[in-house]
Amino acid sequence: MKWPKHTSKQETIANILLWSVMLIVPFVGMVVLSSLDNNYEFRWIDAGHVLKPLLVILLAFLIHNYFIAPILIYKHNKMRYAVMLTVLLMAFVAYQCNSGPPAKPGMMPPPEHAQMTKQYSHDKSARHAESKQHISQGRMHQPHPLATPHDFTMFSLLVFSLGANLGMKLYFKTQQDEQQLASLEKENLRQELVYLRYQVNPHFLMNTLNNIHALVDIDPSEAKSSIVHLSKFMRYLLYDSDKEYITLQQAIDLVNQYIDLMSKRYCDSVDIRFEAPEQVPNVGLAPLILMPFIENAFKHGVSYNKPSFIHMALSVQDNRICFNCINSKNDIKHEVGGVGMTNVVKRLDLIYGDQYTLRVDDKEQYSVCLTVPAHHVGTAAATKNKNLSQIY
Length: 392
Hints:
There is one protein chain. By secondary structure, the chain is α+β, with helices and mostly antiparallel strands. It folds into 2 domains: 9-182, no CATH class; 219-391, Heat Shock Protein 90, CATH 3.30.565. The protein is 64% helix and 11% strand. It has helices spanning 9-36, 44-73, 78-99, 111-119, 122-140, 149-218, 220-239, 248-263, 291-301, 339-352, 379-391, and strands at 246-247, 270-275, 283-285, 308-317, 320-327, 357-362, 366-373, 375-376. The strands form 2 sheets. The protein has a 5-stranded mixed beta sheet with strand order 2-4-5-7-6, covered by helices on one side. β6 and β7 (366-373) form a beta hairpin. α1 (9-36) runs antiparallel to α6 (149-218), α2 (44-73) packs antiparallel against α3 (78-99) and α3 (78-99) packs antiparallel against α6.
């Protein structure tokens, strides 16, 4: 059976730290006990008796980590996990029953025994050693009790290590799922932004083509000039509109191009103003984020029967880009909330979240006030976009 990759680098480090503590603490305890108790002597053979069950627990831990825990964490099969965990615990209990009781480590012989040993002759010492060997062999044949404090301690340590392993795997699996979910949400937002942007672009082209169509009958030469301007916009839509941010200078150039394209359609009775900073800082904003507001200003603010005005201003204050647009209102009834305006609000929500402000006042005059964070761009990118703006 092919298991998914379920052990991350962080989880591996956590497991190593856990077992480093579990293997070091018993030896430290034995050294400390030997320094505090004169009847206890630290011996490496005793350390081996302590290390042996710990290595068995480590083997069970690895089996649980790589073969049993993934059944619950990744396959969500609780019944199969419970069965295999029970088998693992029973195997450990069987090992305890067959391993025999551990020797009492490090105990020094009592003073009385040491004094008696000094008084024995060589022959008596030999007979005593032989008698001791028979006694030891008899002890080896003694049955191992079903449960000793040492067995209970080792079994509890096994349960603790397996529980810690399962808890760590659940924690890191949750972290991994959250990262994948965040990555998926980010990709979904990107796809939605692309979709909304492709909806804005045809909306903008539709309005521009309508303007050129009107100029064909009024002034064919101006219509040709407008087609040249439109080709420049198409170049922008093709190469730059899919970027996350464009420079503020490029946004200003696009607004000027659009105003120049639209002003050819109207007479001098329409007062069109656009104020921008003379020294444009190297900051950027989302592409096409201002165009729907400007398009609506020309669509709703220009009247052929009475004087009309469209006043726009773009500035940078306190590391924020501020756009203001005020226009008169014509007497033509339009559909409330076009595609462009609806999509630009969605784009603002997706790109800037709660870091932007948008105020719309629709009374005797129509006014829009938009502020977004100023995204700083590098010097190289600013120079490149400045060169592109000169081409436009």
